[in-house]
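Submission checklist for the structure archive. All mandatory fields must be present; incomplete records are returned to the submitter.

[x] Identifier: Deoxyribodipyrimidine photo-lyase
[x] Organism: Sphaerochaeta associata
[x] Residue count: 459
[x] Sequence attached
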Amino acid sequence: MIEAQRIIKTADNPVNKAGSYVVYWMQAAQRVRQNEALAFAIEQANALKKPLVVYFGLERNFSAAQRRHFQFMLEGLAEVQQTLQSLGIPFWVHHDGILAGLAKLMPSVCVLVTDRAYTRAERLWRKQAAGFSLCPFYEVETNVIVPLEAVSDKEEYSAATLRRKIESMIAYFAQAIEIEAPHLCALSEEPPFDPIKLSNLSQVLDSLSLDSKGASCPHLKGGEAEAQKKLALFVESKLDGYATLRNDPSNSHGSGLSPYLHFGQISAIDIYHAVHDTNLADARVFLEELIVRRELAYNYVWFNPLYDSFEGLPAWARKSLSFHEQDRRPVLYTFAELEQGQTHDPYWNAAQRELTELGTMHNYLRMYWGKKILEWSPTPKEAFNRALALNNTYQMDGRDPNGYAGVAWCFGKHDRPWAERAIFGNIRYMNDKGLERKFNMKGYLARIEQEIVLRNQLS
């Protein structure tokens, strides 16, 4: 049984007795393993003695997503389709719009289940689906360890305030589950649309006419199997020493799991158990980031309707930045110059190249990167918008609660006021001298060049 606090009834309609199957609308949790929404949908199908269909809808114009994001996602979905097939569950992918496909399915749906989502567009899809649903509609929390509203009923000020509330709940909610085949697999009806065939991903991608900013990322392969490999490699060779090495950009000592978490190709619960069970001292530091910091970002996006705008920042940060808005900047760059990594700062340019050419950015450099955009833009508000646009367009985990919170942190969110200075006001300051004092920055530049060469060899 799925923990009741994970389940929200979004539309309280009676079961559609004329329906032929239960539908799990997969969107945020693009996996089979440790998928509470899928498990709940199987429970519903078994109780009603109906088969289960898993549905996915493609939104080709979704925010700033590029071809490389869709490639990564579709690689994962192709794997999902194969795994579901082994369980006797059909997987239908609609090619042109989530809601359009759902509307075609609706007359045949007994019960509709989906995974919970947090950003504005994803919440709107669920609200609209609830509006035309002809059956009960459930959302199941699958992508955080502790259900959001079990932790707090408000936007939390900082990691410290969330930590006090969430720590005692983690062990209870981190329940491992097994996905079993539904009792009834025979399906008499054909899909009401022609599902996309995921056997030829290049053909599918070409048919979607997607934007293609940023280099292709053949070094980042999507899917559950790849996510589990990365997790195993991280636990085996990088977790020990993580606390001291994770911030050094000359090392690649992170887990590399962020894109897989973003697309729901791996569960945070799986990661929690793999790391926690090692009993390594460094596990505590990693789990702080996986749970407290990550779920603080989800809290921010859920409770703050202005999470993607300058106006969503804390009042003290906006006041301080606005007071210093007219301060003389040492240099101003256009958005195009920033996008192309054409500044005077070799470390910033390397971080931007890492973003555009490799699809990721070292976590410590991402903080520095955002601070410099603030320093080099005409106004704080324009700086915020630029940082968010670059992050959402190029990061493989762009348009994610972590990304929104990460950009906002550069402008004071989840931080405290610091000593006042020009341009930044009371916002925490970072500079290149600080990087050089702490890290081997020549090593960082060399690492990025080497990784780009390796990427090019794969292309």
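[x] Structure attached
Curator remark: The first strand starts at residue 7 and ends at 11. The radius of gyration is 23 Å.
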